[in-house]
Request: fold
Amino acid sequence: MKIIPLSVPNLCGQELQYIKECINANWVSSSGEFVVDFENAICKYTKAKFAVACINGTSGLHIALKVCGVGVGDEVIVPTLTFIASVNVVKYVGAEPVFMDCDDHLNIDCVKLSEFCSHECRITKSGLRNKKTGRIIKAVIPVHVFGNPCDMEEIMKIARQYRLKVIEDATESLGSYYTVGAYKNRFTGTVSDVGVYSFNGNKIITTGGGGMIVTNNRLLAEKARYLTNQAKDDPVAYIHNEIGYNFRLTNLQAALGLAQLEQLGDFIKIKKHNYELYKKLLNGVCGVEILNIPAGTAPNYWFYPLIINKNKFGLNKDAVMKDLQSKGIQVRSIWYLNHLQRPYRKNQAYKIENALRLWKVILNLPCSTNLETRQVKYITSVIQDLNRGNLFYGKTKKNNYKTGAIH
Reply:
């Protein structure tokens, strides 16, 4: 059986040519022209003023917290519905996460974020103090989940009001931007104090493993570059005045990334086409729908979340996942909520409701940029057949509903 993978790289450009150039030049490690070229290309594409390449998105978020002054004893507001790396980095710097609910697009709930800051905290000379824990909240990390942009206009208003640093986890959303509002034509990752992209193997473009820190603040960029390069003050005498990190991206990875970035526009077009095809083919299938994109945004359509209403569809998420996998279709559930993870069960979680509901009903469908139309049709036909076997079939088999078919 040939498997349709969830999300795999699409290496169809100049990747091999650029890597050969690295090898021929005998410059494959963490310095080299391709690292600089990749950073410059990210700046040109996103219009961020500064970019610092690093080994992965997690290291980028770690450094972003450091340069924003988050440290031991502080708190950072994070979404509970995100990959755990967005939370772990808070602990890396000695701070504690406070968990926030999600909205219907799976992004951080701005209404509850504002409510938490105004009702559960108080403004002091030292900053926003959490009434329950007594700690100062230094920052918030909004995550653009599955490439769908958060409501950064509202988040930035809240952050300014309560003197919070904002670190955008844009690891899934390279190429997503806003089409209306204060940040019209601005890319995710470039709105806040610091943004971070990821080039993991399953991302829309990949370097195998890699990341990029972006900012419009020169001082923050210089500090990030310094810390990712072992805090090297004198490279000849090996003087290090701070604790740094070996977080530099290799020239080989940067070469791969540059070739991938050249194809990003085409990749997004493919992603959008397949998203719309999924939506069209599943329209009318009772009990399932593809998650809608936020208004006023142009996402990169990285993942395709399928919402399953068990009462209407006849099967729950786990049953659908099992059946699809048995037919060679690789799907996965969204992440287990972080406030329920063992390391974080004692941390504060504020009114987590929507995330609990959505976590139980969402599967991610195959979304690679080399996914073919015939494969999308096959996947949706399997879902349709499951529906026919367990329930009346929406708009096309109304008689079943009228005659009291199994619901």
The longest helix spans residues 264-282. Residues 392-407 have pLDDT under 50 and may be disordered. The domain at 15-261 is CATH 3.40.640.10 (Aspartate Aminotransferase; domain 2). The two ends are 33 Å apart (CA to CA).
